[in-house]
């Protein structure tokens, strides 16, 4: 073998053994560990991707959100979570699974009384008709299935099925909606055109205009507590004139 060929062979051997088999290359963008994949990230109402966190209490301390200043908002696996104060983040990050189980149980308890469907949104079967129904939480929202087998079909297109649930919530609650004013601005519903029907969990909230949606999502607990008497132990009340304007309301 002549010298140039020998040099090329040596170079090829060196390169072929420099990268051990199984090492990820740059194109593999997946985190190296499950912990990295599950790490919570700071979020804000302006940048969040999922549905708003609809519970009115902190999952760690149990304190009402807003009782210790603006709630702390994080995003965990694309899902919004809110705490009463910064010190509650650390316990959640240490054991997110336990707290998510607790959150899901509270979401089911909160949303089940106003869940609008008596049939499975996937199969159309009557809930309970195939034995004990299956309660499932997706992105802070309750979905009730006739059986576990329907979950996979739901996960293939959650938006499609939530659209059906939202329409059922609106139809079930609009006629008896307790407020005549927008819960955010205090304006009379209808003064700015057709009211916006917004579904938070399984609760209908009627707003005077699209601009109020962003303000609602900044602090859903604040407005939900005004609307749902069982959350506060009082009757649903209209916002005081001038007190619940978009400019003056607290946001997370």
Largest sheet strand order: 1-2-3
* SSE arrangement, N to C: HHEEEHHEEHHEEHHH
SS content category:
alpha+beta
Helix fraction, binned, reads 25-40%
Radius of gyration from CA coordinates: 25 Å
How much beta, percentage-wise? 5-15%
User: What's the overall average pLDDT, rounded?
Assistant: 78
Supply the number of structural domains.
3
Number of strands: 7
Query: How would you sum up the global shape?
Result: globular
Briefly say what this structure is.
The chain has 252 residues and is α+β, with helices and mostly antiparallel strands. It has helices spanning 3-16, 34-38, 89-94, 96-111, 150-156, 158-173, 211-218, 220-227, 229-232, and strands spanning 41-42, 72-76, 79-83, 134-138, 141-145, 196-200, 203-207.
Care to describe what's here?
With 252 residues, this protein is an alpha+beta fold. The chain folds into three domains: 35-111, no CATH class; 115-166, no CATH class; 174-246, no CATH class. The chain has nine helices and seven strands, in the order H-H-E-E-E-H-H-E-E-H-H-E-E-H-H-H. Strands 1-2-3 form a three-stranded antiparallel β-sheet, with no helix packed on it. Strand 6 and strand 7 (203-207) form a beta hairpin. It is globular.
Break the fold down into its secondary structure elements and pairings.
Elements: H1 3-16, H2 34-38, E1 41-42, E2 72-76, E3 79-83, H3 89-94, H4 96-111, E4 134-138, E5 141-145, H5 150-156, H6 158-173, E6 196-200, E7 203-207, H7 211-218, H8 220-227, H9 229-232
Antiparallel strand pairs: 1-2, 2-3, 4-5, 6-7
């Amino acid at each position: 073998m002549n010298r140039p060929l020998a040099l090329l062979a040596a170079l090829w051997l060196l390169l072929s053994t420099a990268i051990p088999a199984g090492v990820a290359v740059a194109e593999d963008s997946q985190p190296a560990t499950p912990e990295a994949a599950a790490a919570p990230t700071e979020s804000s109402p302006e940048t969040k991707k999922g549905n708003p966190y609809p519970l009115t209490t902190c999952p760690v301390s149990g304190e009402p959100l807003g009782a210790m200043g603006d709630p702390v908002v994080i995003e965990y696996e694309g899902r919004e979570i809110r705490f009463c104060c910064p010190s509650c983040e650390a316990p959640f990050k240490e054991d997110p699974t336990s707290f998510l189980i607790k959150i899901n149980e509270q979401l089911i308890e909160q949303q089940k009384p106003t869940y609008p469907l008596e049939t499975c949104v996937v199969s159309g079967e009557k809930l309970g008709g195939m034995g004990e129904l299956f309660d499932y939480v997706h992105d802070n929202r309750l979905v009730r299935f006739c059986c576990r087998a329907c979950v996979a079909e739901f996960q293939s297109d959650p938006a499609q099925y939530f659209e059906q649930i939202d329409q059922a919530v609106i139809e079930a609650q609009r006629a008896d909606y307790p407020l005549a004013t927008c819960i955010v601005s205090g304006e009379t519903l209808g003064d700015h055109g057709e009211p916006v029907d917004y579904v938070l969990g399984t609760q209908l909230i009627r707003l005077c205009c699209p601009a109020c949606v962003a303000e609602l999502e900044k602090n859903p607990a604040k407005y939900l507590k005004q609307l749902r008497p069982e959350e506060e132990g009082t009757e649903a009340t209209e916002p005081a004139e001038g007190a619940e304007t978009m400019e003056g309301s607290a946001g997370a």
